[in-house]
Amino acid sequence: MARSAGVSIGYLSERTGLAVSAIRYYETQGLVEPWRNAGGQRRFERADLRRLSFVMIAQKFGFSLPEIQSFLKGLPGGRTPTKADWAQLSAQFREHLDARIATLERMRDNLDGCIGCGCLSLPNCKLYNPDDEAAQKGQGPRYLMGDAPDRSADDGNRASNDEN
Ligand code: FES
């Protein structure tokens, strides 16, 4: 199948609002794969507009470029992605997005309480994270990351703390 004439990097820049240098950077990261025409100019598939727009959106949601790259790996190389290809990527992205939203909601709701980070600096850390038990679950603010405080701790104290 003959390749389309493609679009220029300037066109992509104008349509996406991305700087030409940003698109070149994304190229070095394998997020878009232009080819060279007979005159040696970079040419992109028109569908790369959507691909770059996806990159911008995913970055706004806080995904790293390697994460975004792994999402885009699901799209076919060498041909324009179909609606079904995008639907598959969208389902995968939604799963990750839901997990991220759940983390953000926990963060929003619990940031003023003990987050299981090991600092033990708040009065209620003694109840939720006695002796830094959260450290056994791994690194980081475990209760924001989805781990629950152990139920073996004094539930009575915890309940009375919740009422305060
Ligand atoms: S807030 Fe850090 S251990 Fe409780």
What does this structure look like?
- With 164 residues, this protein is mainly α.
- The C terminus is likely disordered.
- It is elongated, with a radius of gyration of 23 Å.
- A hairpin with a 5-residue loop joins strand 1 and strand 2.
- The longest helix is centred in the middle third of the chain and has 28 residues.
- It has two domains: 102 residues, Multidrug-efflux Transporter Regulator, Chain: A, Domain 2 (Orthogonal Bundle); 39 residues, no CATH class.
- It is built from seven helices and two strands, in the order H-H-E-E-H-H-H-H-H.
- It has a two-stranded antiparallel ribbon with strand order 1-2.
Topology, please?
Layout: H1 9-16, H2 20-28, E1 35-36, E2 42-43, H3 48-60, H4 65-72, H5 83-110, H6 125-128, H7 155-163
Antiparallel strand pairs: 1-2
The chain binds FE2/S2 (inorganic) cluster.
The site of FE2/S2 (inorganic) cluster has 10 residues, from loops.
Briefly summarize what is shown.
The chain has 7 helices and 2 strands, in the order ααββααααα. The chain is mainly alpha-helical and 164 residues long.
What attributes characterize this protein structure?
164 residues, two-stranded antiparallel sheet, disordered C terminus, binds FE2/S2 (inorganic) cluster
What are the bound molecules? FE2/S2 (inorganic) cluster
Shape: elongated
Q: Give the total of beta strands.
A: 2
Instruction: List the domain count as a whole number.
Output: 2
The quaternary state of the protein chains shown equals single chain
